[in-house]
Amino acid sequence: MEITLYRSHTCHTGSNADTFSDRNPNISYIVSSGLECATCILIDANGELDSIFYNLAQKRLKLDCVLITHNHQDHTCLLPELVKKLPDIRIGIHPSSLNALSSLGFDRLFPLENDAVIRLGSETLSIVHTPGHTWDSVSFCDKRNNLFFSGDTILGGGIGCCDYNNGGNRNTFYWTIRNLLKTLPHHTRIYPGHYSEHYQTLPPYNLSTETTKNPYILNTLQGKRGDFDRDLKAFSSEYEIHDYTMMHESDLDEIWALEREIWIPELQASREIIQTRLRRGHKILAMKRHNKLLGMICWCYSKFSILDPAEQFPRKFGEFSACGSCSKINAQSAFIYSVGVRPANRKKGIGSLLLQWAVEKIRDDDIYQLFVDSRLPSYNGSHQSDQETIQQDFGFREVIDQYFANNRFPSDHEFAADPRIRFYIRNGLKPWLILKDFIQDKASGNMRVICYMNLEQEQKGE
Prior knowledge:
By secondary structure, the chain is an alpha+beta fold. The chain has helices spanning 20-23, 49-58, 73-76, 79-85, 98-102, 170-183, 207-213, 215-221, 225-235, 252-262, 271-279, 317-322, 350-364, 394-406, 412-415, 419-426, and strands spanning 2-8, 26-32, 39-43, 62-67, 90-93, 109-111, 117-120, 123-129, 138-142, 147-151, 189-192, 205-206, 244-246, 283-289, 292-302, 333-341, 369-374, 430-436, 447-454.
């Protein structure tokens, strides 16, 4: 694999202030198999177009496509000029940002799907969805040569901030870094989307160095989820948004209307149940934009601890979701029993943001154990409706049945076949307990998976 990099000082917008891009100029890469007259790709569209075309001509390379690591202007600013020169050039970006680029007039677009492969002669790059900085963040991995083009996911000495308006999320980012550290070899060479102000040298940067000098990588390796979250929150303050609101009994009608829109009929809480929960001290946090609720998350506090026997955990959803919330002083954990988003607003990172904000509120109350109940709609499949359409997954059903037959707890990979559990895994929670007859819900086979997360530090072995 042959790599030519282009460092830019010209693409970011704004005044002459000392911005992140001033200190960490953007970098784009021409990547080819190394053979003359071969096809090549451009990773991110910034830099000087004259330099790029000069190198292409010198090496007699044909530019096949542009791969965008995420839809931020400092990574896409060269696209209009590039398309003028090469009208047929293809542009790859995460599926969630295809419409955004299309609305700007780009029409030769294709989706960068997780685990798909980009071929460069005999060389290949695997696409890795790496959300956290933004929801549409992707990276590219050359497994044979141990190269990793990380965009703004891993930077030399740091990571990207969270752009909450574009699906950035601290919980998701922690999960992304944690999984990359599990899958990337220690000697991987990192090619990020920015020059490093910390190292003052051009890429590549070595993952082995990041594990000793990058504070976010260190916190992840040590399981210090709380430190990771607080540091990233401070770093991301320019993107901080406050679209959430804590709901009260005076908002009951609005909450109930949202409840009916989110959930299939058999799972909808009645107006009376919601009122009872609020009167018992439960918390309801909602996302609100233009005076409209887009989604909500509900929880209560409990004396139950992860150190208690699992047999003491609530065996029914009613006990889990309608118990009296104990005081912060006596609480050992938080029970999140509902995370829901309006159907029209799903797959936009709203659920992850709700979970992130709830985690922040719970941690502020000095409570660090979190339990969430997750449905299993892939077990039987959910009926087609405005609220939900999920196909039955026979392989997933067999895995769950095996657990009840021989007590073999499924792996995270097996759990992730179900979209609801996959959502929680990607937000840093770990399946902990499967309960049968927890709730009457045909899609899940009346079962729930209880997921767990320590908000401060992971336990050894997790």
